[in-house]
Amino acid sequence: MNNSFRLSSIVFVLIIINAIGILLRYFDLDTYFIFFGFRFQISLVLPLLIVLKSLPKDFIIDIFKRPKYKNKLSFVYLLFIPLLILFAILFLIKKINLNDPEYFYEFGLSSIIDFPIYLAWNSLQLLSFFLFLIFVSSFSKIKFFTVFLIFILFFVYGFIPLKSEAVDFFHLLSLILSASMIGILIKYFQNIYWLAIFSFSILWLNILLFGSKSELFINLIFASQYSSWEGFFSVGKEFKALILPANLLITNIFLIFCLWRKKES
């Protein structure tokens, strides 16, 4: 597959994804579909499905059988240390309290027990998405920028104002910071399993701990019978929308710091 064909394939995928996404949003339809009980978000699964025949079999086998990075503990640190820093900041400025959410047992506690099930439900689409990103980055000399840009462009349809809708700048900021984080992880680690587990876990933890009013996130990551969740912790109203972007920002900074320390040692 030559470079011009690769570029045209990526552009084609981006146009298709955003065209479908805009149409679905315009007619107030979900941007995910259900297949055999599994929920698939179009931006996560369609890119790989469109170019699957073009992927070398050896490349796919190598990504799944011989992932380059195998240090599991580092991803645990990367998941929890930024979250603890965020908790410490909120505690020091006295903007966090224990919450008494509705569906405390049915949604909250059961979600902790059902974490492996939720992860399994989402693993196929996450693995598909990261396989596509790793493949695209494999023929680029600027891996971070390539993944960063494509990641954002795959979800840009969600931020195009339709029917006088306002752009949610905090969600847009979360998308940009997520793209940065995934770009760094793919450039330096490329372990498709830990990419899937980590990316799912960071969003799952944020929603479980602090809640969300996004029916899309709740339905995809948790259960379809709920449209919102208040969270185990409540924060000041002026900080509510900042929680996820702040966690992602701290994660990016911590990740860069860890890579810098590793390079210096």
Q: What order do the helices and strands follow?
A: HEEHHHEHHHHHHEHH
**N-to-C CA distance:** 39 Å
Question: Based on the structure, what is the oligomeric state of the protein chains?
Answer: single chain
Question: Roughly what fraction of the amino acids lie in strands?
Answer: 5-15%
Q: What spatial order of strands do you see in the largest sheet? A: 1-2
User: How many DSSP E strands?
Assistant: 4
Write the layout of secondary structure elements.
Blueprint: H1 3-26, E1 32-35, E2 38-41, H2 42-51, H3 57-65, H4 72-92, E3 96-98, H5 104-113, H6 115-138, H7 143-155, H8 169-188, H9 192-210, H10 215-221, E4 233-235, H11 237-240, H12 243-264
Antiparallel strand pairs: 1-2, 3-4
Helix pairs in contact: 1-2, 1-7, 2-6, 4-9, 4-12, 6-7, 6-9, 7-8, 8-12
Structure description:
This protein has one domain. 69% of the residues lie in helices and 5% in strands. It contains 12 helices and 4 strands; from the N terminus they run H-E-E-H-H-H-E-H-H-H-H-H-H-E-H-H. A hairpin with a 2-residue loop joins strand 1 and strand 2. The mean pLDDT is 87.
